[in-house]
Write a structure and sequence with these properties.
The chain contains three helices and five strands; from the N terminus they run αβαββαββ. The chain is of the alpha+beta class. Strands 1-2-3-5-4 form a five-stranded mixed sheet.
Length: about 140
């Protein structure tokens, strides 16, 4: 397992650093708006890796399928959750339709494993993934 930041904003900054050359090479403009968020006390390396993989899959799908020109990532805190949104201006997709790959199901499974949720929000154009992460988690026997 690769070392992963356990501070959400540092994790996102590392992701941006890693993605930037690939996005630029594909001609995809990135807008990044990561505001202040409270510390996620539950965020350990295992949980951080799930977040990283969810977002990597999102950007990989955009690069591979969306035919987008722009992508925006924003981070906000609202109603006890940190909301990470990734929106593109590509051709979009209907998340209710059956899919042939495992990427979307893996994203959902990873989010649930850390007490979060993945939602594909309607967008006027393109697609929008919302990753909802709880600021505080209730402790359970299995973590």
């Amino acid at each position: 397992m690769e070392p992963v930041e356990t501070d959400l904003l540092l994790l996102l900054a590392t992701l941006r650093f890693r993605l930037q050359p690939r996005l630029e090479a594909s001609g995809l403009k990135l807008t990044w708006d990561a505001g202040e968020v409270p510390p996620l006390e539950w965020l350990d390396q295992r949980h951080a890796l799930h977040i990283l993989r969810i977002l990597q899959e999102t950007f990989a799908n955009i690069l591979k399928h969306a035919e987008a020109r722009e992508v925006a990532l924003s981070v906000r805190t609202e109603d006890g959750h940190v909301l990470v949104r990734v929106r593109d201006d590509g051709r979009g997709f209907d998340p209710a339709l059956p899919v042939t790959g495992r990427g979307l199901a893996n994203q959902r499974r990873r989010a649930e494993a850390i007490g979060g949720r993945v939602i594909w929000e309607p967008a006027p154009a393109g697609a929008c993934l919302l990753l909802m992460l709880p600021v505080r988690k209730t402790v359970t026997k299995d973590g």
